[in-house]
């Protein structure tokens, strides 16, 4: 387990990595709450790369409202919007940036429910779909077909879901950017599994 200081440093490095891929004056769509995404958007806005963020509310817990408030408090123009607005907002957005609970060995991403639909909508509109997370969340134990789901999760009302690797543009980490195909090579069978951290994404 990383210490809080190490996690803070990783988030700063992730934010610096994001600066390399986000276009100038971008409008970003995200969802739920992620410390990594929060730090990345804050830094990108401070450097003139991000003009505005739209945050899907992410019912039923509505963590997106907390995220939008945190961005606004940091001086980033941000709005919490209903989940159904995501596909429409992507028409005028520059890209999507989300966090991750884990990245599986085939490059698929586990994150809050709504991520898969947002990624598919981004792909339909040919907008980049970026994922911000620490490399310690790379999990070689499972792929999309074998992932057992989160522990203590209500099967009738799941809070996490899988987004297939083919919908992910790039995974933005503290060590650089990785396409899903690179993740597949890094986490190929035979390499020692790396346990994902349990910290908030």
Describe this structure as you would to a colleague.
The protein has 201 residues and is an alpha/beta fold. The protein has a domain at 4-100 and 112-133 and 148-159: Translation initiation factor eif-2b, domain 2 (Rossmann fold), CATH 3.40.50. It is 29% helix and 22% strand. It has a seven-stranded mixed β-sheet with strand order 3-2-1-4-7-10-11. It has a four-stranded mixed β-sheet with strand order 8-5-6-9, covered by helices on one side. Strand 2, helix 3 (63-73) and strand 3 form a beta-alpha-beta unit.
> How many angstroms separate the termini?
14 Å
CATH level-two architecture of the domain at 4-100 and 112-133 and 148-159: 3-Layer(aba) Sandwich
CATH class of the domain at 4-100 and 112-133 and 148-159: Alpha Beta
Tally of alpha and pi helices:
6
Produce the secondary structure layout.
Blueprint: H1 4-18, E1 26-31, H2 35-46, E2 50-56, H3 63-73, E3 78-81, H4 86-89, E4 95-98, E5 102-104, E6 109-112, H5 115-124, E7 129-132, E8 138-139, E9 160-163, E10 170-173, E11 176-178, H6 180-186
Parallel strand pairs: 1-2, 1-4, 2-3, 4-7, 5-8, 7-10
Antiparallel strand pairs: 5-6, 6-9, 10-11
Helix pairs in contact: 1-2
What labels describe this entry?
201 residues; alpha/beta; Rossmann fold; 7-stranded mixed beta sheet; 4-stranded mixed beta sheet; 6 helices; disordered C terminus
Brief summary of the model shown:
With 201 residues, the protein is an alpha/beta fold. 29% of the residues lie in helices and 22% in strands. The protein has helices spanning 4-18, 35-46, 63-73, 86-89, 115-124, 180-186; strands at residues 26-31, 50-56, 78-81, 95-98, 102-104, 109-112, 129-132, 138-139, 160-163, 170-173, 176-178.
């Amino acid at each position: 387990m990383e210490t809080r200081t190490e996690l803070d440093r990783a988030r700063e490095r992730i934010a610096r990595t994001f600066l390399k891929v986000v276009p100038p004056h971008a409008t970003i769509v995200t969802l739920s709450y992620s410390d990594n995404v929060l730090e990345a958007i804050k830094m990108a806005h401070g450097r003139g790369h991000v003009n505005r963020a739209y945050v899907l509310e992410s019912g039923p817990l509505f963590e997106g409202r907390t995220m939008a408030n945190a961005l606004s408090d940091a001086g980033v123009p941000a709005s919490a919007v209903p989940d159904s607005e995501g596909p429409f907002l992507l028409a005028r957005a520059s890209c999507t940036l989300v966090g991750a609970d884990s990245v599986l060995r085939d490059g698929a991403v586990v994150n809050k429910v709504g991520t898969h639909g947002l990624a598919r909508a981004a792909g339909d509109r040919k907008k980049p779909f970026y994922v911000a997370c620490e490399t310690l969340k790379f999990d070689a134990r499972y792929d999309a077909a074998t992932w057992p789901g989160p522990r203590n999760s209500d099967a009738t009302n799941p809070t996490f879901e899988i987004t297939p690797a083919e919908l992910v543009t790039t995974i933005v980490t503290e060590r650089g950017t990785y396409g899903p195909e690179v993740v597949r090579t890094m986490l190929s069978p035979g390499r020692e599994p790396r346990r994902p951290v349990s910290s908030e994404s």
